[in-house]
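User: Design a sequence. Structure:
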């Protein structure tokens, strides 16, 4: 009897925690389709009008283009550089690889506000003008550690005998990577790239400090909140939510690959 009550209590707590975490996201989606400008219950009607109002904003399309530019560049650069770093780390001795993981993981462990201030100070000292380029460079500092961790985990189970065989047959290091290594770890690389893109797409604090001018989708949400609260903000939040969840879900599916 006590065991049954314990299981019931654990199940109830788990369900309540899930509701607590998911309910705000569900409300964002629901109110984005509500016909009333007041975000209250009961929802009076169903409409796509707030999405139309969002699409009619010129700043939405410019923010979308900026977000696409930043996330695309971050996804490619973080994957290329992170994979190269992972291929080196995985061959290091345990103490050396642990030190490398710690150093690469520092930006990931730092509060975003502190990291944003540190990068802003660095770019100011170097005289670098704030732009989308500085945003991409800043996003690389906290997305690359995730790529390194994911790719390293895959490479630790990798059979390096196939690489040695290719090299013995006269293949160059680049040809060996393109014809042997890359096809075997390709799903993991795509998954790591999508995770890096999802993290970059969602970032607000670092982007806000380093963009200089213009907007990405998260900073546009902040700007819309400052001028008023209407359901078109929920429509934008829903779009960001769908993009993030979609890319993350696909990434998790791809990174389960084990060859």
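Assistant: Done.
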């Amino acid at each position: 009897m006590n065991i049954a009550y314990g299981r019931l209590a654990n199940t109830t707590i788990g369900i309540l925690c899930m509701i607590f975490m998911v309910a705000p996201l569900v409300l964002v989606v629901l109110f984005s389709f509500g016909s009333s400008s007041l975000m209250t219950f009961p929802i009076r009607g169903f409409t796509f009008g707030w999405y139309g109002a969002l699409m009619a904003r010129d700043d939405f399309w410019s923010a979308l283009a900026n977000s696409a530019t930043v996330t695309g560049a971050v996804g490619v650069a973080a994957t290329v550089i992170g994979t190269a770093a992972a291929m080196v780390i995985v061959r290091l001795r345990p103490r050396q690889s642990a030190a490398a993981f710690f150093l690469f993981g520092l930006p990931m462990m730092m509060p975003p506000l502190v990291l944003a201030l540190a990068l802003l100070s660095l770019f100011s000292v170097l005289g670098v003008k704030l732009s989308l380029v500085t945003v991409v460079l800043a996003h690389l500092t906290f997305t690359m550690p995730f790529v390194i961790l994911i790719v390293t985990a895959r490479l630790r189970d990798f059979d390096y005998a196939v690489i040695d065989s290719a090299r013995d047959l006269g293949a160059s290091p680049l040809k060996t990577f393109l014809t042997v290594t890359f096809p075997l770890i390709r799903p993991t690389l795509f998954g790591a790239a999508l995770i890096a893109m999802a993290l970059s797409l969602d970032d607000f604090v670092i982007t806000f400090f380093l963009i200089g001018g213009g907007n990405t989708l998260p900073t546009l949400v902040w700007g819309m909140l400052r001028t008023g609260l209407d359901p078109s903000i929920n429509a934008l939040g829903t779009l960001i939510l769908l993009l993030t969840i979609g890319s993350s879900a696909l990434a998790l599916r791809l990174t389960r690959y084990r060859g």
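The chain is about 80% helix and 0% strand. Residues 49-255 form a domain with the MetI-like fold fold (CATH 1.10.3720.10).
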